[in-house]
Write a structure and sequence with these properties.
Keywords: Cell membrane, Membrane, Transmembrane, Transmembrane helix. Residues 94-159 form the YetF C-terminal domain. The chain crosses the membrane at residues 16-34, 41-61, 67-89. There is one protein chain. This protein is of the alpha+beta class and 193 residues long. The chain has 3 domains: 2-99, no CATH class; 103-160, CRO Repressor; 164-193. Helices cover 63% and strands 9% of the residues. The protein contains 9 helices and 4 strands; from the N terminus they run H-H-H-H-H-H-E-E-H-H-E-E-H. It has helices at 2-6, 12-33, 36-39, 43-61, 67-90, 92-99, 115-119, 123-132, 165-189; strands at residues 103-107, 110-111, 141-146, 152-156. It has a 4-stranded antiparallel β-sheet, with helices on one face. Helix 2 runs antiparallel to helix 4 (43-61), helix 2 packs across helix 5 and helix 5 crosses helix 6. The longest helix has 25 residues, at 165-189.
């Protein structure tokens, strides 16, 4: 029993190389699949992710079912991911190549022709995302773009934006000034006693 748990059944270097190779393959596949795959996983996407993890499992572990072998694979994945993340944070060109660039999907309240088709997004998904960001519909949107990480950033037109605390404070100041002016005008119109 201890032998099966603790003895790695394939060379450690092979275990690390297998893990790095599968990581790189999955990275390329997700890059080719595009931003939409990260934007919001629907039922079909979840099925693919679960099956994908099962499909590549043997490519990572090989003929090794040991606890130590699994730990080596897990540590390798975390270290490689950390290194790639740090690299992307320091090198904008690498980030553009590996992650892509933002795609504008709405401009001045209208869908950008071909953008949804290119990203495999349905208009209903986009409309839902706009509502989540306080817009009522696409006509309220000045610009919306899908970021490489799958996040949709929506900028509402000025008329469609909610009032901020600063806006409310400014309104209160103006109302106070109007009240003061009305009080002054009313006092000026009173006949003398």
């Amino acid at each position: 029993m201890w032998h099966d748990l603790l003895v790695v059944q394939i060379p450690i270097v092979e275990k690390i190389l297998r893990t790095v190779a599968v990581y790189a393959l999955i990275l390329v596949l997700f890059r080719l699949a595009g931003k939409r795959g990260l934007a919001g996983l629907n039922t079909f996407d979840m099925v693919v992710v679960f099956l994908l993890s099962n499909v590549v499992q043997n490519a990572i572990i090989g003929n090794d079912n040991s606890l130590v072998g699994g730990a080596i694979g897990a540590v390798t994945l975390v270290v490689v991911n950390s290194l790639v993340t740090r690299w992307l944070a320091r090198d904008p060109r690498a980030a553009r190549v590996l992650e892509g660039e933002p795609t504008t999907v709405v401009r001045d309240g209208k869908l950008v022709p071909g953008a949804l088709r290119e990203l495999a997004l349905r208009p209903s998904e986009l409309e839902h995302a706009v509502r989540l960001q306080n817009g009522d519909n696409l006509s309220d949107v000045a610009r919306a773009r899908l970021e490489p990480d799958g996040q949709l950033l929506v900028t509402l037109k000025a008329a469609g934006q909610s009032a901020t605390k600063g806006d409310v404070d400014e309104l209160r100041e103006r109302l106070a000034a109007i009240e003061h002016l009305l009080t002054t005008l009313a006092a000026d119109r009173r006949p003398p006693h």
